[in-house]
Input
Amino acid sequence: MVLFCIFATSFRLRNTALYDVNGRVLAVKRNDMGTIRFDVAASGAYLIKVGHHPARKIVVVR
Output
């Protein structure tokens, strides 16, 4: 059951990864110069990493 969505936009071909706060990979998608969507089932803190850039913290709230 999907309750929340996280969107990521990139203007270059990049791998985009979504991690939980413990560093476990939840999903990896290839961004083809547009917007991609990650479906998450719970609110909380996540990390997102686009290409070679450092991971950023995202907090999903209800």
Q: What stands out?
A: The chain has a mean pLDDT of 87. Residues 4-60 form a domain with the Immunoglobulin-like fold (CATH 2.60.40.10).
